[in-house]
Structure prediction request, 245 residues.
Amino acid sequence: MERIIAVDQLVKSFENEEVLKGIDLSINKGEVVVVIGPSGSGKSTLLRCLIGLNDITNGKISIEDVNFTNEKPISKSARIKMGFVFQHFNLFPNLSVLDNITLSQIKNKIQTVADAKSTALELLKKVKLEDKVDSPVTSLSGGEQQRVAIARALALHPQIMLFDEPTSALDPETVKDILNIIKELAHTGMTMIIVTHEMSFAKEIADRVIFMDDGKILEVDSPDNLFDKPQHQRTKDFLDKIIYM
Ligand SMILES: Nc1ncnc2c1ncn2[C@@H]1O[C@H](COP(=O)(O)OP(=O)(O)OP(=O)(O)O)[C@@H](O)[C@H]1O
Ligand SMILES: [Mg+2]
Prediction:
């Protein structure tokens, strides 16, 4: 199996507070990894370090065997290999659906305006929003906005998709739509790291589940093992607290 991401003793501090305390992680191409863990355990920070939204304090991140460290931050060429979907969508509120999806390709001269538009239309069909092309994103529901955010991330043809609690700001009926889109992506062989507490979803699609606690990876296992036979009491206590399955 071909490795796509390697994280080696990653440390991230804010001011004097160590938030990631030596993370080791290796992810293969096509793998779907779900990250769970209590609030403040460092899940978002880990994703943000991977995509270069947070700099690294210590340790090393390799993206397709190119190394990044404190002295050598994640490069733009590595960054555009990754699509990021946030909990709160993070769309450009003053732009239409179409412009949200095409802006970055046009600005970064990745595609011509015409090609960017046709890519966007294709993706909007995939997320079933083709009738909203010209709508301002602010007129859309939360679930629709998240579908735009997914289309926007996919428009850059990423090799890796990172999702940070993509459904936790949505109302229950729309959660399934978004999870189904992510499931379809998983079936195309996309490498994905997904922070989510949707346990039955995780059980269905994850190759591995990571439990983070207090800036560390406490436990990594198959979903069946991690959910049904956690090795650590801390994992068990966490799972007992959240409603699942
Ligand atoms: N920009 C920042 N400046 C200072 N501290 C930060 C910053 N970002 C995150 N932190 C701190 O880092 C710790 C980990 O935060 P992080 O957002 O990664 O946790 P999380 O596991 O994603 O939590 P949640 O489940 O609530 O989203 C928290 O204590 C948080 O307050
Ligand atoms: Mg978070």
Remarks:
- The first helix runs from residue 43 to 50.
- The longest strand covers residues 3-14.
- The chain is about 35% helix and 25% strand.
